[in-house]
Amino acid sequence: MPVKQIVPALWEGLMDLLYPEGINCYLCGDKIRGQHTYGVCPVCRKEFIFVGEKSCSMCGKQLDRAGLCSDCRSFRHYFDRAYSLCVYDGKVKEWIYSFKYAGRSYLARPFGRMMAERIKEIGMDRWVDCVVPVPLHRKKQRQRGYNQSRLLADVISRELGMGKARDLLKRIRETPPLSGLTRLQRMETMEGAFYMNGKEAAVKNVLLIDDIYTTGSTVNQCARALKEGGLVRVYVFTLASGKDI
Ligand SMILES: [Zn+2]
Ligand SMILES: [Zn+2]
After folding, report:
1. Nearest ligand, CA of residue 110?
2. Which of 53, 149, 200, 223 has its CA 20 to 30 A from that of 88?
């Protein structure tokens, strides 16, 4: 097994050992009695508002109708199409926070598997050559110990048998947290934050994986770097997206 694949395999093995699926709910910790979805109990599962047909036809954000959201009517994106699994709200918001900042890296398993299921339903796995996670800056990844988007991309690639290009994108500089910033400030902050690292001739279309889509500034700059690097199509799938703002 190539060295690059050993680490995710070890991580998976360790997770199996520490957090065996179906005993306690990954999210609330309660004992699971009966049915569960990827280790998530029915009560927690109900907290997810899954994005359906009534969503933006460009960025995939939930709307109360079909069509384009106000954001996509005013701005062009570099990516070709984005989708999200669920709405970034309520308990889901808390869980994603703990996934990112409280060391609950094992949540990549239920989250990644739910994402994989939806990606397959849409058919996105057939549109692309591989998955690419949004990179964290080296320093941030060292502090946190992991990159949550990379863990999600690992689970998705394993579930769907898709290739992954974990190091195709690099983060040039550190960026401050985007929460609380306006759309314009977010755009300015993320401008030129990424570059594409080399190119494999076989890779033309990719699926970019991230945790949250708010105004899309991060994935948009990633898509820009990938297209400037010669890729043809960049699709995006995120765990959760904010409501239309
Ligand atoms: Zn639960
Ligand atoms: Zn939109």
Report:
1. 1
2. 223
